[in-house]
Amino acid sequence: MNLSLGEKEYVVLIDGERFLIEDPKPLGRQLLDKAGKRPVEEHVVLTFLDNGLLEVIGLDEIIDICKAGIMEFLTFKTDRIFRFVLDGRSFPWGANLISGLQLKKLARVDPEEYEVWLEARGQDEDRLINNAETVDLSPNSLERFFVIQRQDSRVKIFINEKPIIVIGYEHTGLDIKQAAIDQGVNIQLDFILSVELGPGRTKIVADSEMVKVQRGQKFIAIANDDNS
Fold first, then answer.
1. What is the CATH number of the domain that holds 29?
2. CA 175 and chain centroid, separation
3. CA–CA separation, 177 and 15 (whole Å)
4. Which of 21, 103, 202, 227 could lock onto 194 through a cystine, CB 3.0 to 4.6 A?
5. Are strands 82-86 and 89-93 parallel, antiparallel or unpaired?
């Protein structure tokens, strides 16, 4: 049974904060009011189900908080519900943005041991979502994510068609050139580095610019006087 004090108050978690509720079967609006989310009509409340999914609780919907364990709720100030798919399961969400770390928490995985990826559409490649990175859920298309266990932090990329290995996914332009030189690619640190964006499209990467590399990504490094 849910932890209670004197059999009269029940503990719940709302947005990670502990609250005591006297009513064993409160309404959604009572939970919002208890957490200070006013006016309650401008907020929504979601609860975690036993299977790990989220469920929207209506303002006048009764929720039984007497069952085993401490029930956990999330609240959002919003007038709409967004949806996404994570590992093949549909989730509601109360904000248009969701971070990689939030997705990992919803998937109930260790953030340091797993990666979360945004499934690509068409011919695009799946995109790695870092913990602090957010994805916009507001477009009409349903975003689909999946998590995988991080097997190796070694990432193979290509510099002037030559394969090199970098460790980790975030590097500066200077780091990438140095890694290429260390692995025998015939370039120099003062070369201009560009990343291929698609057929006939490139973008210059400054030495101090941080790049999130992906496996198989292609870069071009040319001497300064070749670009004059």
1. 3.10.20.90
2. 26
3. 44
4. 202
5. antiparallel
The low-confidence residues of the chain, meaning pLDDT below 50, are 227-228
Instruction: Read off the pLDDT of residues 121-165 as tens digits, 9 standing for 90 and up.
Output: 766 778 899 999 999 999 888 999 999 887 667 788 999 999 998
Q: Enter the tokens of residue 91.
A: 């989730």
d(CA 215, CA 213): 7
N- to C-terminal Cα separation, the chain: 74
Question: Do 93 and 37 belong together in one domain?
Answer: no
Contact 75, 15 (CB under 8 A): yes
Structural domain that includes position 90: 82-149
Nearest to 156 by CA among 140, 142, 145, 167: 167
What is the domain count for the chain? Answer: 3
The structure tokens listed for 221 are 């490094």
Are the C-beta atoms of residues 48 and 54 closer than 8 Å to each other?
yes
CA dihedral 23, 27, 31, 32 (to 10 degrees): -150
